[in-house]
Amino acid sequence: MSRSWRTDPYEIRAARRTRGPVPIRVTAPRPGHLHPASPSDIRTLLTELGPIGTYGVRRIELRQQESHRGAKELFGQTRYPGLIRLYEQPHWRTSPLEGMTLREFMLYVLLHELGHHIHDHRSGKRPAPTLRTTDAEHTADLFARRHTPTLARLRHQLV
Q1: Is residue 30 part of a domain?
Q2: Which residue among 13, 41, 72, 138 is least packed, with the fewest CB closer than 10 Å?
Q3: What is the pLDDT of residues 37-65, one digit of tens each?
């Protein structure tokens, strides 16, 4: 039992099971809006992250903004199972994080959403939530902050 495949660390399972690039679907933004991070920016980031960034992700979508009650600003969303959405932004918007361009911020949002995905994927895709919302957000933020240096390294490659 000591060498069970199910007890392998997540990173090892990801390296063993990841197959091919993640499809990226792009919906044209509405007039006055744009997708700050291009599909090539996303592919560059996912390549830099390696298998842990793509394991279990079925698709990434660049979409038009959806109307959500009570949501002021929606940058991205993780949908079950393995679907990550990044939403268009108004052309006048600037990054909420100082020192980052809007493109880099949207890639940071992608890192955050990957953190949600990894948490859900590690927990066995149970339909019932395993953490409170604030804990899940904290876990996703930790993943994004841990991989923020990757964005700094890629800054000159993001064209």
Answers
A1: yes
A2: 72
A3: 999 999 999 999 988 888 888 899 999 98
Q: What is the pLDDT of residue 130?
A: 53
Q: Is 121 within a domain?
A: yes
Phi, psi (5° rounding) for residue 89? -130, 150
State the pLDDT confidence band at 17, using cuts at 50, 70 and 90. confident
Domains held by the chain: number: 1
DSSP labels, the chain: -TT-GGGS-HHHHHHHH--SPPPEEE-PPPTTEE-SS-HHHHHHHHHHHGGGGTTT--EEEEEPPPP-TT-S---EEEETTTEEEEE-EETT---SSTT--HHHHHHHHHHHHHHHHHHHHHTT--SS-SS-HHHHHHHHHHHHHHTHHHHHHHTTT--
Q: What is the pTM of this model?
A: 0.85
Alpha-carbon span 45 to 52, nearest angstrom: 12
Query: 95 lies in a domain?
Result: yes
Task: State which residues form the domain around 108.
Answer: 5-154
Residue 142 domain flag: yes
